[in-house]
Amino acid sequence: MTNVLEVEDLHVSFRAYGGEIQAVRGVSFAVRPGETLAIVGESGCGKSVTARAILGMVKAPRGRVKKGSVRLQGRELSCLGKKELQQVRGAQIGMIFQDPMTSLNPTMKIGTQIAEVLIKHQKLAKKQAREKAIELLAAVGIPEPARRYEQYPHECSGGMRQRIVIAIALACDPELIIADEPTTALDVTIQAQILALLNDLQRTKGTSIIMITHDLGVVAEVADQMAVMYAGIIVEQGPVEEIFDNPQHPYTKGLLQSVPRLDQPSEERLIPIQGAPPDLFAPPAGCPFAARCDHAMEVCAQYMPKSTAFSAQHQAKCWLHDRRAHRVEELVSAGREQHV
Amino acid sequence: MWKYMLKRSLSMVITLWLIATLTFVIMHLIPGDPFATEARMLPEEVVQNMRERYHLDKPLIEQYVQYMNGLIHLDLGPSIQQKSQDVTTLIQSGFPASAVLGLQSLVIALTGGIALGVVAALFHNRLMDYAAMFFAILGISVPSFILAPLLIKYFAVKWELLPVASWDGWEYSVLPSVALAIGPLAIIARFVRTSMIEVFDQDYMSTAEAKGLSTFHIVFRHGIRNAILPVITFIGPLFANLITGTFVVEKIFAIPGIGKYFVESIFNRDYPVILGTSVFYSAVLILTLFVTDILYRFVDPRIKLANGGE
């Protein structure tokens, strides 16, 4: 089974006053057919930039993919020309943006916005494109699709607009959909509906999805695999259940502890992660999380940790798992001895 | 929609009446009168006769009522300076030339301005942008009475490409149209650049890009319509200004338009012409503003006209 998408050692930087912001610093992951990969991380960790980089949409002239390879079904995308990339966008990779209130053109009819993708990629005539667009509107659960076709975005609610955005992304049956925080701007009941819709469509069409989010609830609900991003690198990745049950990176542990759980006694307090992520103008040489990590050792601040594999797919980048590090059990017992 | 139109029409009539009244009052507040020069050379009785001929001997309020009565019947009265011509005929004979000139320069200003603005925005902060904006600043700051003679010197005299100093056909209108268009073109270019840069940053432009559309399609199908609103605001008054003629350009190119009456009538205290041109200009302006307001609605579907009833 070949992977739908393979990203290897991706680096993206932005020029800014006084230097270069290294937004993505060597990210590698793969997406298998019909699978959902969630990329999780806090604001500014580079997840959206990664998504844009896959589509070759890093904003020039300030932003630049410095290094790395993006392969869609074995085909290298990072060296494609503008025209060839346009053939991929919208046809093979569909994109869903965060805020449906702003991601649709306010001065263009909803129908036209869907139909133009079909006209561009499937070379449909206007009339056929219209019919197909109405079908798509119906498929994403919009009542009276023919009437909605003629309407403008401001005449629709947020949830409805996100359904339209999904219809656009799905229009040409892409192999991969990248959803950049598709539910963040929606209220909770609508969030659930949109996630259910994405799940349904994925099941019927077998599309792979990259779900970018900072909401672990969303991850638990829809994702098969997850990658935890921090300060431009992936610190831990693997199957969702394995990571939720047995997180290996202190940052992942911190994230999971800071989310309320139903099986947790309500009087127990949530544990926030102290501090803030490092400045990506001058990222630390070592593990970017070292400054906030409770278990940081001297080596953490100086050298970037290597990946440690815990199962076929589960891996984390942390010095604690290095052969040479003290085992946690030893530390705990050492602490006990001191206290006695 | 119809209710809105009706309301708007009513307020347009009232506005026009207010403008005519104000102009009437201000005009009579200016010291001097149409026969100030003659009064020094001619006998008292002759001047008195002339004043009677134009009803200037009557009390102001009577003159006002008489003028308004004429205005309702679209009679703008006789010109004092241009013998045996009434103002309506003056405008009728001069307006076509001014309007042709104005419309042509509006088209030049719009197409050129939008193109220049889009190019500048596409190459934001790069050489093309700086070049376009340098040209725009030049266009805004060089007045037409410098640009027009330059155009004549090179295009008409030196290279003999286009004829000037007459009004005998289309080719005579090219240079004056260009001279008239450069200023507005530059302003439009700057407007378009600013709003286009803003539009390029919008999420829906990313959506359009992620659809795999070509840059041309993204700019002209998705961008322009959103970026054009501030330009439409500017086009309203610009249109009125351009088609009612301009003193400088019409004078330099010897075009028989109505631009000169706006200026000369004030020097001559030619009361009916002052009033006539003011009322005419205001009427054109009010109508254009009305049209732009309706245009907004077509460009941006989010805009609803007040009491539109839709």
Automatic annotation (TrEMBL), chain A:
GO terms for molecular function: ATP binding; ATP hydrolysis activity. This is ABC transporter ATP-binding protein. It comes from the Bacteria. InterPro entries: AAA+_ATPase, ABC_Ni/Peptide_Import, ABC_transporter-like_ATP-bd, ABC_transporter-like_CS, Oligopep_ABC_C, P-loop_NTPase. Belongs to the ABC transporter superfamily. The keyword Transport applies. It comes from Brevibacillus parabrevis. It is found in: Cell membrane. Residues 5-256 form the ABC transporter domain. The keyword ATP-binding applies. GO terms for cellular component: plasma membrane. Keywords: ATP-binding, Cell membrane, Membrane, Nucleotide-binding, Transport. It is a peripheral membrane protein. One of its GO terms (biological process) is peptide transport.
From TrEMBL, chain B:
It is found in: Cell membrane. Coiled coil: none annotated. Its main location: membrane. Keywords: Cell membrane, Membrane, Transmembrane, Transmembrane helix, Transport. Pfam families: BPD_transp_1, BPD_transp_1_N. One of its GO terms (cellular component) is plasma membrane. This is Peptide ABC transporter permease. It comes from Brevibacillus parabrevis.
